[in-house]
Amino acid sequence: MVGRSSLPEGSLFLGFDSSTQSLKATVLNNELIIVASDIVNFDSDLLHYKTEGGVYRDPADDGHIFSPTIMWVEAFELLLEKLKPKINFSKVVAISGSGQQHGSVYWKKGSHAVLSSLDPTKSLLSQLKDAFSTMDSPIWMDSSTTKQCREIESAVGGALELSKLTGSRAYERFTGPQIRKIYQTVPQVYDDTERISLVSSFMASILVGNYASIDETDGAGMNLMDINQRTWSKTVLEATAPGLEEKLGKLAPAYAVAGRIAPYFVERLQFDKNCLVIQWSGDNPNSLAGLTLNTPGDLAISLGTSDTVFGITAEAKPSLEGHVFPNPVEPDGYMVMLCYKNGSLTREDVRNSCAEKSWDVFNSYLEKTPPLNGGKLGFYYKDHEILPPLPVGFHRYIVENLNDVTSNNLVEREVEEFDPPSEVRAIIEGQLLSMRGHAERFGMPNPPKRIIATGGASSNERILHSIAQIFGCPVFTVQRPDSASLGAALRAAHGWLCNEEGSFVPISCMYQGNLEKISLGAKLAVSTGEGVEDKELLEKYTVLMRKRMEIERRLVEKIGRA
User: Which domains occur in the chain, in start order?
Assistant: First the structure.
């Protein structure tokens, strides 16, 4: 059986994560132990772009949020320079990466010639600055394509039909509706585009000096791919824009080789000419790999710029809510996911307004307020939310009669504001109750066997404690909260191994029985309380969760964006 010993002695595996706010790198050795890492933060390290949270918000077009494509190129160069003193690039045998899902890049006609003949004496920035038909990359935070979503759904027979076909109904952030908007509003940009890449395949293209394929897992986040056949759906392509298939290129499995590293990096940075670039994929699929999530009863919660809840399943059962993607490390399986736009930035807003801009004060408020928050329920949307589809706004309620868990007579009244400590608990409990309610409705495990928490806020013990109480299961964390770049490095090793064997091999064979000795093991952070009081608390959270879902449904009927 293949295993860790199959990875060459002294070899390194490099994983990148091109996310909303930063570009990270994680390096694993052949024992799958982290030996180096680094980061470029877009706002602070690349000040001249003047991004906020890595993005621009268009004041003239509500919900239009994008990033400067060329910033990602400059960040990539800077990160490689930062890594140079830390590792010997000639020892890197495979590279892979993670890109924020749904974001897209538009290569203008003639750019392939530039990409395939990069001059190692010049910077990437200077050579690629004119390679794009638009300098603005639409990203996952964008919500300006509602019209295009409805048009695509209508063309294929409705939202449920589109979901059955592609794994998701039409979502504003998905790449298909974004492409349709460009085709409709700036047709000259669409006409001048020879290739459309996702963020993941864009970065891989730079590394191989050629247009890299979109991988099947990230491709499922576009509303364009047939989720069962894993090919572009002609029906949806035609409903989106003319001549689109030619601009997208072919799809590839996530574990496939995108190509050997381009001569540019061999000559400029002394990478080995045989270094393989494994298909890049989306950030959530890479997190799934990095968390070694391979048991159907487990759930992962990623607490980042966006919050996501995901798990794995053997069969695709798409619905009107949530998403189904191919599993990036198990060719016959699927991953299921829920995504919330209002994650860490919204938590930070509450911290800034209610907790003296201090996480210590924020956590002290979480500690001193009781679970259930005296029935105080909050809905906090700094940006238009994805799930539920509600516009920017803040809604606060006090639910009464919560002490009687048998009561069906819970009454809520709307209020203007809470005191600061209650506000802090309300945002955390509100976000987690929403996750639990939608996860159960989507058919995810209830209760899960365990939750693995990742992302920046997973290092916050008070938040982990609330997850355990609300979901009623133990919570585990991983050694590093940046599971996407770690997953990318692991996938680099896995892709190298599949290539070496000449066919797919299960990723688990690389770490089976050794998780506690390598950089991938998850550790118990909060156990489940087994006492009578703990069970009563869980019952009350269940009642409060149902009440929240009921209020949410009414809000969607009244002011929803869908």
Answer: 344-447+528-559 (3.30.420.40)
